[in-house]
Design a protein that fits this description.
4-stranded antiparallel beta sheet; 0% helix; single chain; 186 residues
Length: 186
């Protein structure tokens, strides 16, 4: 699994799309899809640790963003170049179609939708913790670091593009806000 880091720069814009080599091409099993190599300039905030030893409440949900879209037609991951990007630039489709959502804070009611229909919870096939390491959002988390959010991977295999993927989640603690993000997949 690749490390995904976020530099501590302005929230207003994300860095240019980072090229990512896909060993063995885009075909293969679910396990052959590597995590996208993202570089998103967003500030990392301190948070409470996850696990058996509790030091306080979990951080409230503060941001959702579609970070990347993967498809066999595109040939790998297309990283989004800005937070809240309205649509993919590349054309997607083929046997495999995946979406990666970045969730900062802790939510307890994740709901993904595609083309107007709610996705079964099993379509969120992988969830990876995000930690702050050297003032950067990092995944996977090294042992002993604080979990401040999650990457949620959605499997849309069998769906056709174009279509709109949307995602919402509700904070697991005060202020119990519900956040929403979406992207039109060309």
């Amino acid at each position: 699994m690749k490390m995904i880091c976020f530099s501590a720069a302005a929230i207003a814009a994300l860095s240019a799309v980072v090229a990512m080599a896909q060993p063995g091409g885009a075909s293969g099993s679910l396990q052959s899809i590597e995590a996208p190599n993202l570089s998103m300039p967003v500030p990392a905030r301190a948070a409470k640790p996850q696990g058996a030893q509790t030091f306080g409440s979990a951080p409230a949900l503060s941001r959702l963003a579609v970070a990347a879209v993967y498809s066999t037609k595109y040939g790998g991951w297309e990283n989004m170049s800005s937070i809240g990007q309205a649509a993919t630039v590349g054309q997607h489709g083929g046997a495999q179609l995946r979406v990666l959502v970045q969730e900062i804070g802790y939510g307890n009611n994740p709901v993904g939708s595609y083309a107007g229909g709610t996705l079964p919870t099993a379509k969120n096939y992988q969830t990876d913790p995000i930690c702050v390491v050297n003032n950067q959002y990092t995944s996977p988390c090294p042992a002993g670091y604080t979990v401040v959010g999650f990457y949620r991977y959605y499997n849309l295999d069998g769906f056709t593009a174009p279509g709109t993927f949307s995602f919402q989640d509700t904070s697991s603690n005060a202020p119990w806000n519900t956040l929403y993000t979406k992207i039109y997949i060309n």
